[in-house]
Amino acid sequence: MKNSEQSFFDDIIKKFDAFEVFNNEDSDQVVGRIGLVGTLYLPPNPDLDYRERIGEYVESFINKHREFFQWKTEVINEEESLVRSLMTEANFVEAARRLGSDSSFSGIAGSSPADADYPESIPGTHQIQFYFPGSNQPGESGHIRFSLPFKWEYNSSKSALLSLMRDLCNLIMPLHGSAGMGFVYPPSYEDVFYVGANGSFYTGVYRFPGIDATPPVIGGGELDALPSLNWLTAVSDPFLEQIGGVNQVKKALENEPYQFYEYPNGILIQAGSAPLSGDRVQGIIPLLYRKLYHVLKPIMMKSVENPFVLDGENEDEEEMFVAYTRRFE
Question: What are the pLDDT digits (tens) for 249-264?
Answer without folding.
Answer: 999 999 899 999 999 9
